[in-house]
Amino acid sequence: MKARLKWVDGVCFMGESGSGHAVVMDGAPEGGGRNLGPRPMELLLLGTAGCTSYDVMTILRKSRQDVTDCWVEMDAERAEVEPKVFTKIHFHFVVVGNNLKPEVIERAIKLSAEKYCSASIMLGKTAEITHDFEVRAA
Known about the structure:
The protein is α+β, with helices and mostly antiparallel strands. The protein is built from 3 helices and 6 strands; from the N terminus they run βββαββααβ. It folds into 2 domains: about 40 residues, N-terminal domain of TfIIb, CATH 2.20.25.10; about 100 residues, GMP Synthetase, Chain A, domain 3. Helix content is about 30%, strand content about 40%. This is OsmC family protein.
């Protein structure tokens, strides 16, 4: 996997993924940025949510769950001193659908957390990662 990051101005950077997609990262105005894009650590958190959500949805589809909507809300804490690594991350999945089986959703989240999601497994080396979920009828 390859990627490229180019400095734009101040603390603003343009990242390009190996698949050719671009993203702007910037800092807050009090840190010298212009707030033109998410912070790098925000992208790391969002990427981790994307990784685990991809796994969960794939497992739920294979399990023939009739999912009509799904999102994950994250709450993260970082260390007070440098390096300000994530110390706690909580993922709250909301799965909406018809005749959903909570035990299947719980299993999908557990499989992602323990076996498939490279990002959360990697972040789990420094952060306490927890998960919960709720099921809503479509």
